[in-house]
Amino acid sequence: MESIRRLRNPIREYSWGSHTALAELLGEPSPSPRPQAELWMGAHLSAPSEVRDGAGWITLGDWIRRDAVDVLGAGVVGEYGEELPFLLKLIAAERPLSLQAHPNSEQARSGFERENRAGIPIAAPHRSYLDPNPKPELICALTPFAVMCGFRPLDEIVAQVDELRARGLAALLGRLRFERESEHLRAFFEALMGLDEAEAADLAAEAVEAAESGYGDPEARGWLRKLAAAYPGDRGVVAPLFLNLLELRPGDALFLPAGQLHSYLYGTAVEIMANSDNVLRGGLTEKHVDAPELLATLEFEPRLPELLAPLGGDAVESSYATPAREFALSVVEPRPDRPFDSGPRDRVEILFCSNGAVGIEGDVAPEAASLTAGAAAIVPAVAGAYRLSGQGAVYRATVPRA
């Protein structure tokens, strides 16, 4: 029978990451010598967590496959096989991430198989699909966290472009100026993505010049200039004119389904998603941009993002409601006078401590008996009920029942 075990989790170093946020949370020297962008907690092949196994460590995926039913639970294995269906992350953005969207199940499966048939290596920089899984995701802010997400209302897009007074961008509006239809929004975005690099650089330069002259909405204008400073000449610098801008407060969350164009701008957050690393980029990046695949993935309907607050009021545990099948996330905040009891359970969990110090009682290995900020543990299905005590905040990730 498997007990609750401590996880050792890899840090991903991307150019947009922070030199301080993860280092300080993990109690490591700060600033870090390289930008630290994400802490991964899961079994994705790109960067799996490790589990203490006797005197050594093994990857979480290998540990699961030794006895998947005991670790994941029979219901999870029946639906997903011997694979942890979610990936939990801590994300720290010091500068904006790429303009991107994620595929649905069918798109991910067919894209992955197509690139395999073409003989494109998984590690190839021009590969778009790293696995056959969709990537719905939920982002939960630990600090103020800024996001561009979802197309603005069509009237608003036209007004934003007109107010900026940048002729090159205005010319891309086409029929959207006169007919507010989603097909014309698609044509506008296709025209933007269809610019060659020189044309995109000219468009961005003209937009920046207009913004610096004081034209346009102040918030969108401010972000346009910040994006241009981070990614000079990139077509994505004009995205604040056609995407919604919002800032999550600590505790707020945002669910992103497949096909929704977005970019995280700054801040630290907990993120949970299906077990996938499929990202289709459209700009604001040094990485591969696959415009045709992104266009085939996007939903061209205006969508006002809905912020989610945790449900549960004053309860020790509060949860975020999403339609995702692969994951469920809640926040447990025990206090000295009110511990948290999990009750009966039959499926895998990952526990991540974001602050404080929390003890775990139950069928737990000695090294996992307490969690401090930055630490995580895997809770197998067969480990049974457990108790969290002390004072802190623990994110509890699991697989919802169908």
Shape by Cα distribution:
globular
Radius of gyration: 22 Å
CATH architectural category of the largest domain? Sandwich
Q: How many domains would you count in the coordinates?
A: 3
Number of strand elements: 21
* Helical run tally: 11
Mean pLDDT: 95
What is the class of the largest domain in the CATH system?
Mainly Beta
The rounded distance between the terminal residues' Cα atoms is 26 Å
Q: Would you identify the CATH H-level superfamily of the largest domain?
A: Jelly Rolls
Portion in helices: 25-40%
Runs with pLDDT <50, length 5+? none
Largest sheet: 10 strands, antiparallel
Short key terms for the protein model shown above:
402 residues, alpha+beta, Jelly Rolls, 3 domains, ten-stranded antiparallel beta sheet, nine-stranded antiparallel beta sheet, 11 helices, 21 strands
Strand-helix topology:
Layout: E1 5-8, E2 11-12, H1 21-25, E3 38-41, E4 50-53, E5 56-59, H2 60-66, H3 68-72, H4 74-80, E6 86-93, E7 99-101, H5 105-117, E8 137-141, E9 145-151, H6 154-164, H7 167-171, H8 182-193, H9 197-212, H10 218-230, E10 243-248, E11 253-256, E12 262-274, E13 280-283, H11 291-297, E14 307-308, E15 317-320, E16 328-332, E17 340-341, E18 349-361, E19 370-372, E20 376-379, E21 387-398
Helix pairs in contact: 9-10
